[in-house]
Every structure is written in C-alpha cells, then in structure tokens.
Amino acid sequence: MPNDEDLRKLKRLADQYRINQTFQSNDWPAAHISTFRSVQELGQTCFREYSDSIDALPGDRPWRRQNKARAEWLAEQARRLATNSANESAWRMRIEHVILERFSVEVAWCVLPQPLPNPFKTDISESELQATFVEVRDRDVLHRVKFEAGISRVFEERIEETIVHHDTEEELPKQRPDRMIGLRETNNIRQLLNQPPRGLPDTNEQKLRDLVRCAPFKWQSSPLLFPFLVLEAKSDSTPASFSDIQTQTSFPIWSLLNLQRDLRLQRPVVSGAPEALVWFLGYRGNDWKIYGCYVSTNPESECTYNIHYLQSGDITTKDGALQLLLLLDYIVDWARDTLRPAIIAQLRSLAMGRDFDEISRGPESDIISKERTIRDWVSRIPSTVAQDETAHMPTNNSTELRFHGDLVSVSPPDTEFGIVRPVSAATLQLSGLRLTEGNVESLLALSDGPEHGKSYSACARKLVNELTRWDETLVVLGADLDDIERVWADDQKMALEPFDEGSGAEFYAVLEYRCFMTVAWEIVREISYWAISKSAFAVLCKHAKFQKKHSRIDSFPERLRPCSGTRVEDTVACLRSGSSWQVLLSALSSTLLTFYPEPARKRGESSTFVESLGFGCPGAIRVRYFVGDYLKKTAGLARRRKKAGPGSPEAKKHKSLDAWEQKTSNRSFRRISKRAVGFVEAAHDPADCTRCSRGKQDLFMLKHWNKEDIPLPTAYGAILAASLQEEYADASSHQQRHDLSLFVLEYSPWLEDQMSISTIVEDLAQDTSIYHTIRHEPSAGIAGVQAVLWNLPRPYRRTTRRQRLDIQRWTRELNG
C-alpha cells in the first residue's frame, strides 16, 4: 500500500487526468442505466427469501442451490478470518477462489440423478417420454441434480501484473493490481487479430494485432485481452480506507477503460457500438464494495473517467456473501454475453472495413454452455499425415464380427443410430521422426521448399528449440529405436529404409503413447517418437545460426538422461500388454502418456542413469502433433512436378526443381507403421510386469490398469458406449458415423439375431449409466484443444436425456 505522501501525489495526478470518484446516486449514464440498475437490485437480495424460493420450487433453476451453499461457506470462512485478524494474503488465499469461481468454470450439461421407470421400453412414444421427464423434473429428486462443469475457455486472469502505459505517459506510476480478469485469446479472436485492417489509412502490411492495443501488459504467449474486472484487497487491520484503495487503483482502471475506448474510436462512431465499461471490486477484510467505471464526455469533448460506487456488503453475513456471489455471476454473464461479442464485432468491423451496425454475430464456438450438446463442442480434427503416407496402410472394412481367430463369424446389423463392434483386435500405429547426419539436411530442404534456397535456419531453429524445451531428454542407441519399432509393430519385416548411421549411434529421443477410439469405433494404440542423433543435432545447431546465447542449448547436456535398451524395451512391452477389457477401458478414457525417466534428476545434479521409465498424463498432444507436421511434408512433390511439367510457363525452373528433389531424396527419417494385432488373453498384472515392478506407481498404473470403480462386463460379455463428439463423414466415403456402440468382448448366440441385440441394448441401458468416450481421427489433433479430449476422468457415468432418446431410437430401429 502506498504511503500517505504517495497517495496524495496519486490523487493530484488522477485529478490532472480527469479521474473522478463518484458517490452513490441514480445519476447514471444512459448507456449503462439498465446494467447498473440490475447490479443494485441484486445487491438487495435477502438470503432467507432466496432460500425460501429454492425450497418452494426445487426444480426451478437448480444451480441456485449451489449459490446458497457457496454463500453459507463463504460467510463462515469470513467470520473465521475476521476473528483471527487475518492478513491480506490469508483473506485472498481463503476466499478469492470461491468468489471468482464462475470465471474459471463453465456449466456444461445437466445429468438426471435417477433412472426413469422403464425408459427404454420400445413401445413408448417420444411424447410420453417427454411427459415422464417433466414429471421427474418436478419431483424432489431434482434436489440432487448434478452439473458437469468444464474449464472456461473465454476468460483469463493476471495476478499482480505490472500495468504498462504508453511511452508518452512516462509520468504515470507503475502499478500491479492484485488481480485482473479479461478475455482469453481464443481461436476466434486470434484469427481476427491476425487479419489486416480494411478501409483505414496508413495500415500497409499491418495486422489488427499491430494496430489495436488489446492489453496493458507486455505481450505474452497467452495474453489477457481487454481486462474488464480489477480486484484490490486489503486486510481489515490496514489503515487504508476505501477511498485510498480507489486512488491506488485509479490508473489501472483508467488504462483499461482506454483500451475499450480506443478500439471503439478506430472507426467512426455509430449506433450500437458499446461504451467502455470496467468493474472494480475492492474489499477491506470482510467489507466489500463494487464500482462501475465508465467514460463520460462534456460538451467540449473532454473525457472524464468515472469510478462510480454501486453496492457494498459484509461477507461475514449470509446476505452480504450471497449478494457478492450473485453480483460476480452477473458480471460473468455480462462479460460473456455482452462485452465479448461486442469486442469481436468491433474487431470484425475493422477486419472487414464495415461499420459496426453492419456486422452480424457469428456462432459462438468458444463458449461451451451455448452449445446444445457436447458432441458439438469439439471441431473436427484434421489429419496431419499426408494422403500418400496412409494410402498403403491397411484399413478394417469388414462387415463381420470375428472372435477367436475367425472361428466364429457374425454379420452385424446395418443401423443408423448405433453400431456393434467386437473387441478382438486393435490397430498398432507407429509414427516416428528419426534424424541422422545423413538425412537431416534432406528434411530441412523438404521443409523450406524449393523456393527458399540453401538457408535452413528457420526450420533448424524450430527443431532445436523443440528438443531443448524438454526438462529431461532420453539418450538411447539406434539399436534401441529399432527394438521399439520391432516390438511395437510385431513385424520383423517392416518396410523402413535403412539408416546410414550404425546401431551404436546415440540419439536424443522423446516418446509419447496414445490409446483411443477412432471415428469408426475402432481401437488404436500408437507410439510416437522423434529422435535426433548427436551428430545431426550439431548440424542443426550450425544451420540455426542463433544470434544470441541460447541458454537451453547450453544446459542441454545437463538434462540428458542415458537409458539402456532394456529399460526402453520393457516399457514398450508394458504398453503392448493388456487384455481386451483393459485396452478397451484405456481407449474409452482416451489415454495420452509421455515417457519420463526415474529417478527424477535433482537440481544441480549431473546426468544420472535411468533406472526405469515412468508415465505422465499430459492434457495435450505434443510429440505426435510435432512429428505429424514433418511427416506430411512428403506430400505435394508430385503436384509441384506436375505444375512444372513440359510446356508449362514454369519449365525454366525444372533444373532447380530437379536439384531440390535430389537433396530431399533421403526420406529415411520417416518411420511409419500400421497393422491390426489381436489381444492376448492374459490381463496385465503390475506385479508380473518388469517395468511396473521396477518403478513406483504412476498415474497410468493407478488410472488405467486398476479400474476398481468400474463394473466388469455383464453376462452378455458386452458394454454400451456413447460418443460425445459430433462426427463428420467424408462426403465421398458414404460412411455412417454413429453416436452409440455395443462393444462385444466375447461371442454370444444373442448376437446372431438383430432382435436379441435390441434386448441387450435395453438391458444395458436400464442401469442409467453407460460408458462415455470421445472419438478421434487417427492423426494428431489441433494444438490448443486437446486438453478436453484426453485422459478422461470418468468413462462410466450416468446417461443424459439426449442419450436416452438416442438409445430408444436405436432399439426401435433394431426391432424393425
């Protein structure tokens, strides 16, 4: 907290910049009257009346019960902190995460808590089923309705981040508010900021990102755009008053208001463009006050920045705690439904060169709760492997269910709403990138293309930076990589090109494992790796031509972990094992693992030998996505050649193109394999596994080999699963995409009759809990969205209303 003298200087400086503290009154600006009125109405909410309304109408907006519980908890915690005379840090650590919870989560969908009476009876009509749901909604059972919540994808926050003003405002103090919340740079906003503006003078070769100042901070990889909420906290023992807290935060508020105002003024002002508005929450111990901050203009066109007091309360009381939670919930909805669409519309206005009132609002793909079903949340994941790479790979187009080595063959029903799949085999894929001194320049030339000459610095820097970003990198021999390919593919005759470096050459390697369900409901188990030999790494560093000292390269030798081939082979064998039931559960969970050495290297220690390899569960694909980007670069060579064919205007370039093709002829860095392999009957036992018994239990062992909370397959030897992703069939393939699948682990005579399959589906659905998964393309996904797709925590859970309707439709279809 600034001392008294600094506060007086700040106050004088604020007066010079026309920053005005406005006390409570109804003299609100016309642009914000309805917003401020709603805030004051919420600030008068009584906890008792709020609770009575919940008890009277239990099925009406059931999330209100959650607000009540949060308010009670918050009031109790605040009373304890006030009694103990807690300092500022204690207040912030104990209550801020509850107060600001809505900014970090997004309510996804509602799950009914109990089954309907025989909901999958095939002779029930949809109108009767709808009436039954209405009846259940009105019963007291809805007291126990649970909401699935996901991570909010539209908000970002900064804690004690320094505000950076324009160079012309050097006299302004450098301040760090306790917390600021703003918009996240989602894909929608990123695409707009990377577009050039239209209709504006002197913007040649500029992007909107260069023209529009979106954040008052130094630019970061995950920027906070247009902050709209500032929070400043003090303990109740501090001598600072709320007026002092306002003064301390006045210039951060001034800066945030100018961000919105400057964006609005980029084009001529027209009706519909929103006025700048920033919220300020200050609390001193248990007392809180909320302010609405806006810009007003006098007849002389002079701007005044107003910090307008709106509401206050005491969170040691249930009334005050509930009012604060409701007010912040309101700000969340305002930011999501009003501010963010307006910001996007203004950016789109600049990108399209049209007025604000001519811009239509497109679909909101970044906000989960605005989607009707979860299957629409995730966009299609495009393939990162070229077409010519997968053309030779076998695909399973069989229309029969096969068990026990083709001894039994059953034709599955051809239905629209569901599919029957045997769990008899899985596709083993290997996607590798292995660079040696002999093929590294071929990859560099291939990446840069024939037009870029001999300078490979950009591609070389990318490869070096990707390898050195890992905290610990394995050092293995070329023979060990050969063993990985042999053991995983189960094929001694893999059609891979030979290497120019012997099996004793050392490689720096990074590995990743995936087990998932494809869009065709087939199980895929994949190991992805990329490795660079020691000599190839030296070639890359030479081509990279770093101008400054690269700290990650200097420390790279200290982070290397030599690993024997035995450890690597044991790890691959561990992943290769598992019964059909264990692998099916792993695929339904969308398992994604990274390899890390054990024991962990302590700070200051030199490189230590690896005793075992552990598995970590990341939230996003890293290796497969990076490797796939280079594997697909082999495509397009024939297309380039066709464009430069005889008689074309490009015939003069044939000579240089031939030279480029010669440079890129060594494609031995591509390590690709794909084949279907049956399951072993024995289940994976950690006690008998060499890798698992040598190391400590990791997340993979705890989450995927030990499924104690998941019931075993029923007497039918089958389970029912639902996909939570919308599928997109290729228009030329005429393939059906299904939302439901009956997985059959062992043969049963019931499978020979389509009517009997309907009975199995009905019986499995009676428990109201089925398996859930997300289907993936065989190639890696888009960077930035994988966090919601992998390592799903609960594959077995209750069905949703939509899923029950889909199951009912499928059983009707099976019954003819």
Plain-language structure description:
With 816 residues, the chain is an alpha/beta fold. It contains 25 helices and 25 strands. Helix 13 (457-468) packs across helix 15 and helix 24 (754-765) runs antiparallel to helix 25. The protein is globular and about 80 Å long. Residues 56-60, 108-151, 368-399, 403-408, 492-498, 638-642, 725-737 and 781-787 have low confidence and may be disordered. Residues 638-659 are annotated as: Disordered.
Sheet with the most strands, sense and barrel status: 9 strands, mixed
- Report the radius of gyration as a whole number of Å: 31 Å
Counted up, domains total: 3
Total count of helical runs of at least 4 residues: 25
> Care to count the β-strands?
25
Stretches where pLDDT is under 50 for at least 5 consecutive residues are: 56-60, 108-151, 368-399, 403-408, 492-498, 638-642, 725-737, 781-787
Q: Give the overall pLDDT as a whole number.
A: 74
Helices and strands, with pairings:
Layout: H1 4-16, E1 19-22, H2 33-42, H3 47-56, H4 63-83, H5 88-99, E2 105-111, H6 126-137, E3 146-151, E4 155-159, E5 179-184, H7 187-193, H8 208-211, E6 224-234, H9 242-264, E7 277-284, E8 287-297, E9 303-314, H10 318-352, H11 387-390, E10 401-403, E11 408-410, E12 419-422, E13 425-435, H12 440-448, H13 457-468, E14 473-477, H14 478-489, E15 506-518, E16 523-533, H15 534-544, H16 551-554, E17 560-562, H17 565-576, H18 580-588, E18 591-598, E19 612-616, H19 623-631, H20 637-643, H21 654-663, E20 670-678, H22 690-694, H23 699-705, E21 718-723, E22 740-744, H24 754-765, E23 769-773, E24 775-776, E25 796-798, H25 801-814
